[in-house]
Design goal:
The structure is a single chain. With 122 residues, the chain is mainly alpha-helical. The chain is 41% helix and 0% strand. Helix 1 (2-22) runs antiparallel to helix 2 (47-71).
């Protein structure tokens, strides 16, 4: 079922892109793609047909998006969200110690010195 929904979704995406690109723009850019009087769809253009097909493809895109999201929901997820759980599952952060009064103190750490290799002088 997931494969069928995904296939329909991908085909819808491709056709939706094509139909959006076929529509003529408001500024007359459709003339570049044959939007003049000698176009494939006649002298009135294809505004009505392309708008309707685009609307149907957009609706199919929306439905397949939601269906695929529902079908691929992992089974380990529960219906309880973090917002519904509230602060019950949260832990407080570790407390931060303030520096000593009168100045900053530094803790001195010593690093181990590696032992010299055989035959190497100190």
């Amino acid at each position: 079922m997931q494969t069928l929904v995904l296939t329909i979704h991908i085909l819808t995406c491709v056709f939706l892109i094509l139909f959006v690109l076929l529509q003529s723009g408001q500024e007359g850019m459709g003339v570049i793609f044959g939007g003049g009087s000698g176009s494939v769809f006649g002298s009135t253009g294809a505004g009505g047909i392309l708008v309707r097909v685009t609307a149907v493809l957009a609706a199919v895109f929306l439905v397949t998006s939601l269906a695929y999201n529902i079908l691929t929901k992992p089974s380990h997820l529960t219906d309880n969200s973090l917002m519904q759980q509230g602060a019950a599952g949260m832990t407080a952060p570790a407390p931060v110690q303030a520096p000593a009064p009168g100045g900053v103190t530094f803790e001195e750490k010593t690093l181990p010195v590696p032992a010299p290799a055989a035959g190497e002088k100190k």
